[in-house]
Write a structure and sequence with these properties.
With about 260 residues, the chain is an all-alpha fold. The chain contains 12 helices and no strands.
Length: about 260
């Protein structure tokens, strides 16, 4: 599978570079627009805009859309033939592709976000290094370079940042696992606009999950049986995610190189 991942990197490194630069441009453009809008509205009026134009929406939205295009190599007959005839079995191709794109896109999105934060923080660096500003380099790094959720997390945990960070990564990855699997499934199943179908299913299933955990489960019982509640929550995410990936693999195995059908089966 490592050889397959090296092959994917050789074939797609220029695509990843374009995605990296494009995402930086989106972040910087968003920051510029927010800076302009702040000149005309009060902080209280900006709260709704901050909620809509949040970096987290851009970060996870970019990752999920990329998940839906994970198997875009099946989009044309020539590329599909090349991919399906690689010297590996279907399971190795599927797993290596899922691991490569999932980790690669996450790292790309994180690197683009940090780079964009650094670009927008250049005036603050100049103020600190040249104009003897009040902020130190470590404060700039925590407040302006790291993603907001990470910097707050670091300040909260202090010296135990590494252990707390690993817990944060675990729960964040767990929460993201089912959307990742859903967008992967729709990307494999639908030949075009799989991400739109995934968004629709995400809202419907998210509403059902809300009814189950917020309405159907008593908060007092959940607090009294915290360990059992967490186990049920983990199972509630892992089992559908495993089913989605299994179904994605089945669709991948049965994918047909026929370009005039809405689905690949």
């Amino acid at each position: 599978m490592l050889q397959l991942m090296r092959y994917f990197w050789r074939m797609e490194k220029h695509l990843y570079l374009r995605l990296y630069l494009s995402l930086i441009g989106i972040y910087v453009f968003k920051s510029l627009i927010i800076w302009i809008i702040c000149r005309f509205f009060s902080p209280s009026q900006m709260s709704g805009i901050y909620m809509i134009a949040n970096d987290e929406w851009i970060f996870w939205g970019f990752i999920l859309i990329c998940m839906a295009h994970m198997f875009s190599s099946l989009g044309t007959k020539q590329r599909a033939t090349t991919f399906l005839t690689l010297p590996a079995n279907n399971l190795e191709k599927f797993i290596s592709r899922v691991v490569y794109v999932t980790l690669g896109v996450w790292l790309l999105a994180f690197a683009a976000r940090v780079t964009a934060n650094f670009i927008t923080a250049i005036p603050i660096f100049f103020d600190t290094l040249v104009m003897n500003g009040k902020l130190s380099l470590s404060q700039i790094f925590l407040r302006f370079i790291l993603p907001g959720s990470w910097s707050v997390f670091y300040v909260f945990y202090g010296p135990s940042f590494i252990l707390g960070f690993l817990q944060y990564v675990f729960w964040t990855s767990l929460m993201a696992l089912w959307p990742w699997s859903l967008f992967t499934l729709c990307g494999v199943l639908f030949r075009r606009n799989g991400w739109l179908w995934a968004i629709l299913m995400l809202f419907v299933c998210g509403f059902v999950a809300y009814l189950i955990f917020e309405v159907g489960i008593d908060r007092t019982w959940a607090s009294e049986h915290n360990g059992l509640f967490k186990s049920l929550f983990v199972a509630f995410i892992l089992l559908p995610s495993a089913f989605n990936y299994w179904l994605s693999y089945r669709c991948f195995r049965r994918a047909q190189i026929i370009m005039n059908k809405p689905i690949r089966l």
